[in-house]
Amino acid sequence: MRRISIILLSLILTTQSYAQLSQNPNKFLGNITTRYQVDAGGGVPSYYTLWNQITPENESKWASVEGSRGRFNWGSDTPFNYAKQHDFTYKFHALVWGAQYPDWFNSNMSVDERYKAIVNWFDKVKEHYPDLPMIDVVNEAVGMHQQGNPLMKESLGGGGKTGYDWLINAFELAYERWPNATLIYNDFNTFQYDTDAYIELVKTLRDAGAPIDAYGCQSHDVDNISKSALQSSMKKIQDAVKMPMFITELDINVENDAQQKTQYESIFPVMWEADYCAGVTIWGYVYGATWVDHSGLYKDGSERPAMTWLKEYMATDKAKNAKSPLINGRKQISLYVKPAALQVSKNETLPITVRAKMVDSEKTVDSIKLYVNNRLVKTMTKEPFVAEYVPKNATTYTIKAVAYSDGKSFERLSSFTAHEQRIPYANVSLPGIIEVENYDKCGEGITYHDNDSQNQGDANYRTSEGVDVVNGNGGKAIGYTNTDEWLEYTVNVTKEGYYTYEAVASSGTTGSGFRLSINEGGNLTNITDKINVPQTGNNSWSNYTTILGRTTVKLKEGKHIIRLTITGSNCNVDKITLRHVVDVDNKLSVKISATPSPSAANNYTTLKFTPIYSSNAESIKKVKVYLDGKFTATLSNKPFQYSFKPSAKGSITVNAIGVDSLGRESPITKFTLKVELQRSTFRSMELPGTIQAENFDAGGDGLTFHDSDSDNEGDAKGYRSNGGGVDIITGNDGYAIGYCQKDEWLEYTVNVKNSGTYDFIATVNSESDDSGFRIGLMKEDGTEVELASVSVPKCADKDTYTTVEGTLAKGLGTGPHIIRITFTGAQCNIDKIEFTFKSNVNYITTDDLNANGTRYNLAGQRVNEYNNHGITIINGKKVLILE
What we know:
Elements (H helix, E strand, L loop, with lengths): L1 H16 L10 E5 L20 E3 L6 H4 L11 H10 L2 E9 L13 H18 L5 E6 L9 H7 L9 H13 L4 E6 L7 H13 L6 E5 L8 H15 L3 E6 L6 H17 L3 E6 L15 E2 L2 E2 L1 H10 L2 H5 L11 E7 L3 E3 L4 E9 L8 E6 L2 E6 L4 E5 L6 E10 L2 E12 L8 E3 L1 E4 L12 E2 L19 E4 L2 E4 L7 E8 L5 E9 L4 E9 L2 E4 L4 E3 L11 E6 L7 E11 L2 E10 L10 E4 L5 E2 L18 E8 L2 E6 L5 E4 L5 E11 L4 E13 L8 E2 L1 E4 L12 E2 L21 E4 L2 E4 L7 E8 L4 E10 L5 E7 L5 E8 L10 E6 L7 E11 L2 E11 L5 E2 L9 E2 L13 E5 L2 E5 L2
Helix pairs in contact: 7-8, 8-9, 9-10
């Protein structure tokens, strides 16, 4: 009997282990949620009986989670918990996608603000899901075909030296937070369209050492692809990148049942049986409930023929035994190879770093062998895993790192290209002129980068290279430019200091521009802001203009490499004249202040700028002011002060440009001013009277309140839900302020009716011994006068409130005032503060009982002379009324 029980238990466990279609231990067959639910219902089998991996269709995208800034809707918890319950893989989809991000994330924010918003998004996901097994880090960046990709690209650092630095930065941010997750790049139309561009992108990420673990091939475009075409495309991609593949977002959008089944029979085994494919995710299985009309595998609760075939195929030995690049469908090691540069000159020493860490913390990397072109360069047994290699020939080199751990080996590839040595095309000394067509000689990726290898220019100049040299402005220029293309020039700086520039350029459209940087060992330091090239003709590039400006950093004496990077396509650049700026001791102070208007307000802002002097020491004669890129004013008189009133909430970019006596212009500064809403009273309050703590003034963080984060942690979210992060809770039979942190504060506009001293009673709660707050009076200059310091005692529990009494240290005058409550110790809740008028009269008399005058009781409240008894204040005297 004991032996039979054991056999039966074994059979039950085996059946449970393979409840889903995939009985392959190393490959999953997954799907997505259906209308934000896991089990589709309507007669369709339960999810876990079919699939063993789940991807939220929309629930985990940034726009879905943080549609309102600072408020997070984790609808992705439902599929996440379902996957955890049934012990199969969950994939987070997707951290960065140019098609779905919150509306509040836009170009009106500064680049730094946008970057911080992205980092905060990553941090919040990490906080909520600390141990994600699989992540689509970036979705659909090939060809920049998503409308928001340029915005995401700029926010994450731009193209940089690889052209894909923004994507590398996204993967680095993900790896910092989830080093054990399988990090994936996922894109559309990879098998039939944009295949070469997709390969270039993924391969560049891999070769640059980005922590990318796999690539995802969306398969929305396979309705009619032939088996042979699919095999050829898959092989082409894998041969180039040699990394694990995931088939993602597979759907065959065919209404005819027989045709859909035939296409599944043709292509699905090709995908599943590829030994480099680690899993397949079908994009929806209920007819009419996916993003396309006819892809579903169940219709009206019944399986379509394609589903019947799929179930039969997954039960075959071929499906069960198909090889996978991953063990148990998960990565075992984080292994990345990072050459110091992807493009080098031959005979240049190239450091190569290998990052290697086992996912299982109990296992270690025993050794790493590094090969270049299949020749062993170095065996490394301890960190840091760094080797050096000197390429002798101008060619492409393949790097392979083999890591060994616990008797197993793991491989990772990279590559770099060596070129002939850099040779300056012209001798350039600064101060001097850079003729833009005379970039250094060497090769693509070393001294220039052009998006294609064809010279489209008409100048018949340096035709063997792909840079587009055109005839223009009486000589030669660079034309047909595209964003992120660049050129480099070896220059000799003979005078250290700042430089003014005169750039001669043209454009037949809007949005063109470029930037100058110093390249020091592959690290770029910008020496100018973006140099905007105005439209000089409608679809005509023959009209050249001169753009004036100044370097933002000092140039040091000696030999340097200057890079010109196109920041906005379609400009022609002829030459750049750089003149040394003579420093003098005089300083010019420019003040720009913002004052409130009826519809918006912000704190007063004063900026001081260092003046700019031309090479002949002529000082600035006037200053031009631009607001959000629009010319606003010319300031001709020192101290060049300008005031303006912002008209809306948001950010305003302020530019100040100095003009010397020769008419030459040079930027002084660029500043982003944050504009909050105008202060308004949320509830009218009078003193004597009560301040309800939750009724702080409306305005914004930094204007009418300060909260340490943008999350409303309170449970009263129906009250002032747009309060900007202030934590409003329910308590003491109403609302209160809770979750207080040291140095947070709230302000209240009050109308003081009686001039004099006030007593107060604060209704409070705390579960700490160190809680407290300060009551202050705000002056017009922004300084605070302390009125009282209050210690809040520890209460029995969070629901028990107590009172604390005191007297304000200074009297209040009549009229409107702003009272500030500042938390000096965390974890106290404030319900309300009652203020009572404390008369300065200190004697009692029966005289003047019938005197005319407004009468008050000791609480400072007006009373009627006919029904008041006891002590009454009349004309500043306390009068005892006995009857």
